[in-house]
Amino acid sequence: MQQPDTLQARKILKIQAILGLVSVACALPFGDSVALSVLIGAGVCLLANALLAVWVFRDYRAQALERLVLRFYGAETAKIVLILVLFAVAFATLDNLNIPALLGAYFVIQVAPTLIAAQSGNRTTK
Predict the structure, then answer these.
(1) 37, 88 in Cβ contact below 8 A?
(2) Nearest to 78 by CA among 58, 46, 105, 49
(3) What is the pTM for the complete model shown?
(4) What does the alpha-carbon distance between residue 109 and residue 19 come to, in Å, rounded to a whole number?
């Protein structure tokens, strides 16, 4: 049996993936550089959050709360480092990135699925 927290994390990752694909499709009419920037922003967010979810929820044991908290802080630190490295690589290697589109996509993919899951979570976990 899977823990409710693991199921919630999976749900958020699925929503992020779908929203990322929709965002890229919506950005295509604005040109290749905007669509690529949205793809990178959404991809970085999804990859970083997937890393965090796997790191925190592997061998999940709610009884070992202090170990879980330490694992979460370690995973969050690794997530931030990964985000910074991936953005730095994107900035260094691609000349025509649209910075507002990249950061906007990252923000939307990070925030919107969590709000959606929080709204629907009260009805599905009872």
Answers:
(1) no
(2) 49
(3) 0.82
(4) 7
CA 73, CA 34: separation in Å to the nearest integer? 33
* Per-residue model confidence as pLDDT tens for the chain (126 residues): 356 677 888 888 898 999 999 999 999 999 999 999 999 999 999 999 999 988 887 776 667 778 878 888 999 999 999 999 999 999 999 999 999 999 999 999 999 877 876 777 655 444
Is the separation of the CB atoms in 9 and 53 below 8 Å? yes
Judge whether 71 and 9 are in contact, CB under 8 Å.
Answer: no
What are φ and ψ of residue 82, in 5° steps? -60, -45
